[in-house]
Amino acid sequence: MNQWIQREADELLSKLVEWRRDFHRHPELGFEEIRTAGIVTAHLQGLGLEVSSGVGKTGVVALVEPDDLTADSETVLLRFDMDALPIQEDTGLPFASEAPGVMHACGHDGHTAIGMGVAQLLARHRNELPGRVKLVFQPAEEGLGGALAMISDGALDAPRPATAYGLHLWSRLPFKEVVVQPGPLWAAADQFSLMIQGKGGHGATPHDTIDATLVACQVVVALQSIVSRNTDPADTAVVSVGAFHSGTVGNIISERAVLEGTVRSFEPAVRSLLHRRIDEICAGVCQALGATYEFSMRSCVPPTSNSVAGAQLMEQVASAVVGAQNVTQIPPMMVGEDMAEFLNRAPGCFVLVGAASPEDGIFSPHHSPTFNFEERVLPTGVALLTEAAFAQLASRQPGGKATDE
Q1: Where would a tag sit more exposed on the chain, N or C end, judged by fewer CB atoms within 10 A?
Q2: Which sequence positions are flagged as catalytic?
Q3: What is the per-residue pLDDT across 171-200, written as a single tens digit (0 to 9) for each?
Q4: Is 205 exposed, middle or buried (0-12, 13-18, 19+ CB in 10 A)?
């Protein structure tokens, strides 16, 4: 490991905390990260970097490269997400969200701060880089397709990166523990919507109606049979209904019900089965009970899967940064993450960095109104991705080992 990286990352702690708390106080939803992107852009320009803003609507891309860069030099991509969630914060923190109903409940404020710190270190040592680093600050990670929006807008073009690396702070992992593993880490995530149309009427004359609420209830129960009876027990899958809207008052039988849910899987065949069976079950229940329906499925993100070589490089990097005893693996999680879109085009590695501090009350799950993370982990994130960039580019130099298999 470059010995200066950890030292200089640690020296950034107070600034990283300042940036993080500012972003946390002023969260912005996906594709609305105007203020956040503006701060990032100004910081990157202040470092003398070539910056493109408005990529994928509100994304920011910057290049860090040495003066003597050769035409055939490799490019490595580092990605940082910026968006918040539509959640009312309930942490009581002195830097709590000032935006009603909007909160950084997943750590993206920390990721953006880490990205600004990485940019600062790389810019300071750019003439020591054996290649080029593309910094990608992404909007709309939370199910809105920000990665694809940036890719469609040219984020992977001119120059095209050969590899990609990223991280996610994780509030339920021990402090500074780093999860690095080849293959799938997180699942494919899809969203579905079902609109069930019945026939409304008086609550006292149900025989004159087709009760959309009753039909929808039957659909919700029947959907639970997909994972328990249609998928192979050796496979992993989730079908969850998260929203159920039907009716207005207690004495009127509803004519319409809307269900919204999520589907998670790892294997393409399982993913296809889940999509098909949701449609079939809704069709069967509605036919039996006299209702009609409309079904839509939106594919959000593919599985987040690390290359073998990318994981090997990150394992070495993480061992140097946090110690080999703090580098671990976990069973793949059903969480979705559109870093997958970058990894599918530039194989590399996405890691989880432990940011829990139960003794200080920092252990709430992600997407919770009480979510927080241990800010002392921010320099660790900076060191991990700064060193990953140097290590990846060095591996392409004469005598280095290629790591894009």
Answers
A1: C
A2: 83, 141
A3: 999 999 999 999 999 999 999 999 999 999
A4: exposed
